[in-house]
Amino acid sequence: MESNMEDVANVLIIGSGPAGYTAAIYAARAGMKPVLYQGAQPGGQLTITNEVENYPGYPEGVNGPQMMMDFQAQAERFETDTRYGVATAVDLNKYPFEVTIDEEELVKAKAIIISTGASAKWLGLPSEQRLNGKGVSACAVCDGFFFKGQEVAVVGGGDTAAEEASYLSKLCSKVHMIVRRDVLRASKIMAKRVMTTPNIEIHWHTETDEILGENEVEAVRVFNNQTGVKTDIPIQGFFVAIGHQPNTDLFKGMLDMDESGYLITQPGSSKTNIEGVFASGDAQDKIYRQAITAAGTGCMAALDAERFLAEKEMA
């Protein structure tokens, strides 16, 4: 559908979650009347997180879906136009920018805030999805506390896995690292750290066969990929640390990205290489990936968008 200038959003936010909703709160309170499309997973990764205990303001903790409903309600209190729909195409060469929703509806915007997040890479086991949030996690910093004094397993051999194992070793009685090769891909300093930590046991040439347990994780069945021998390791927590994939395919060829697909922003800002397009949350953050850091960059994106639009009007 064709839009005239009256149909142009001041700020279009692509994606929900802590970054998108925080951007909406700030943009709405600044009178920018933001339009937010929630994306394929309204509320983002937190909607598959049972307990969030490390976000300030929730002294008793809160479950992820409830937290995202709170964020959404706060954004809508200031008249954010929240809509269901997935951005399926963008044209950042035109101004106002054009975004196609669900392959049919055309939306125009004077400024765009990208908060499409990132998705954890999973092993693809049915038991992994069945027990997700019941002992299976992709974030040690988020969920490690729940396994204090217990035995856990970490899958992976890169920096992510080494960092997760190192973090968990301070909380858990024992950490089993499941590594499919005979070396760690992690940097030398991280590899040395896990290999010299007494309560981390590395299982070389080992892959996951199945996660065992009915309503919670009780063990992991692994197999040696050289001998084929299967072993059950009793654990209470299973952490998948084989990396994250930023949800940024939509912007390939238009916005600057690193080799993994994370959007590159100018230091100290949310600005991308295209003026008027801002990136926030896990789509541009491969280091911290926390709800609170995502919210912080959402705030930055809204403030950057507000300044951009003000300068545009004055020009």
Topology:
Layout (H helix, E strand, L loop, with lengths): L8 E6 L2 H13 L5 E3 L26 H14 L3 E3 L3 E5 L5 E5 L3 E10 L3 E3 L5 H5 L5 E2 L2 H4 L7 E5 L3 H11 L4 E5 L9 H8 L4 E4 L2 E7 L6 E6 L5 E5 L2 E4 L3 E3 L30 E3 L11 H24 L1
Parallel strand pairs: 1-2, 1-6, 2-3, 6-17, 8-15, 9-10, 9-15, 10-11
Antiparallel strand pairs: 4-5, 5-6, 7-16, 12-13, 13-14
Plain-language structure description:
- The chain starts with 8 loop residues before the first strand and ends with a helix.
- Helix 1 runs parallel beside helix 2 (64-77) and helix 5 packs parallel to helix 6 (188-195).
- The protein contains seven helices and 17 strands.
- A hairpin with a 5-residue loop joins strand 13 and strand 14.
- The protein has helices at residues 17-29, 64-77, 126-130, 140-143, 159-169, 188-195, 291-314, and strands at residues 9-14, 35-37, 81-83, 87-91, 97-101, 105-114, 118-120, 136-137, 151-155, 174-178, 200-203, 206-212, 219-224, 230-234, 237-240, 244-246, 277-279.
- It is 25% helix and 25% strand.
Provide key terms for this protein:
elongated; alpha/beta; 2 domains; disordered N terminus; FAD/NAD(P)-binding domain; 315 residues; 7-stranded mixed β-sheet
Helix/strand structural class: alpha/beta
CATH C-level label of the largest domain: Alpha Beta
CATH architectural type of the largest domain: 3-Layer(bba) Sandwich
Q: Kindly report the name of the CATH homologous superfamily of the largest domain.
A: FAD/NAD(P)-binding domain
Helix fraction, binned, reads 25-40%
Helix-strand topology string: EHEHEEEEEHEHEHEHEEEEEEEH
